[in-house]
Fold this protein.
Amino acid sequence: MPLMGIEIPEQIAGFLENITGRVRIMVVGRPDTGKSTLAFLLASWLQDRGRTCAVVDCDIGQADIGPPGFVSYGLINQSAPVANMRADSMSWGGSRPGTERIEGSSLARRSISRTGSYLVGDVSPYGRGDARLLAMVAGASACVEAAERDGAEAVVVDTTGLALFSEGIRLKCAKADAVRPDVVVLLSPVSGGRNSAEEVLGHLLEAQGHNVLRVPASAEARKRSPEERRENRIRQWNRYLEKSSLHRLDLGKVHVFRWWADSGFLVRTEESSQSSLPAQDTGAHGHLPVPPAGANAGAPYVGLVLPAAARSVSHGTVVAIPDPHLRGLHIPGIWVTDELGPGILAALPPQHKIETVWVTSYQTLISRGRVMSG
Ligand SMILES: Nc1ncnc2c1ncn2[C@@H]1O[C@H](COP(=O)(O)OP(=O)(O)OP(=O)(O)O)[C@@H](O)[C@H]1O
Ligand SMILES: [Mg+2]
């Protein structure tokens, strides 16, 4: 059933109607301006006009497609049940009496299945210097390319809320430079006052050669409390875990690496495991040992396998496994330890041998295969 009644902002519709080939659209704006809802509506609108559409979800905090902490993508299902929604319930702009609330996230849940993910490793892009920002940019770009390889003709990139400081603005610019969207839709709050962060971002994007469409945020967009955001994260993890199974680990064979290299990247080899490394450096949370000064010079600290680090990864740690089918992407997972030893809950074929695991410092509380905290 066609979705002819979906209203999307006029400027965007006008722009998209003139595009014939492949199209990439990136949606940016502050938290709670309706980015995810608009991203999803745009993808549905384009799908309805005969394009195969994908959404790339860079919103690592309020992920709709994959688990939190990952950039994920998926194609819109052909028979999206969203078609059953009343067309007039999908308004953009002013509120109408009797209008149903549109939840971008619930629409995404009903009509997009996750195809691929890229590890970022936390639910906020900020706070670890450039490491997380790099992963977010790499993830956005890798997912857009993978979606197009899967046949998407239109890719809509949803992003995290724009922070009002320079790091956030730089992140959006770098992401746009990496993704090279045909259009960046910049949502501005309808506060009536000047939105200087949006002005700066819009200007910088244009200076970089990007095409920016400035659109007022929907009056229907509402603020979500930290509690609601936490609940969303728990729900997204448990949604992912429904399709997961437990994969036992052979610690003698698995290569364990920290995703961020801030506490030592070079690791000792098995042969050097009796070395004089201080014991605390192999401690909790999967931290790899820090090589002593001068170790960067080479062997034995350029090794791979680190059973000691693997043994120290805590129950509930978010990890990722290189995706065997999508080069450069990752399979999300949660490291669990029980009386039978360690294993990883992940959506992998049961026979898949796990050889390399990226460990994050993102912890969840996990009980009987379900995530209890986000
Ligand atoms: N056009 C709309 N009509 C009705 N409700 C809307 C609309 N746009 C957004 N909302 C509601 O406002 C809330 C925030 O919207 P959304 O999640 O799309 O914002 P966001 O900018 O992606 O937020 P975040 O920065 O946290 O990712 C949601 O509960 C959503 O249902
Ligand atoms: Mg969002």
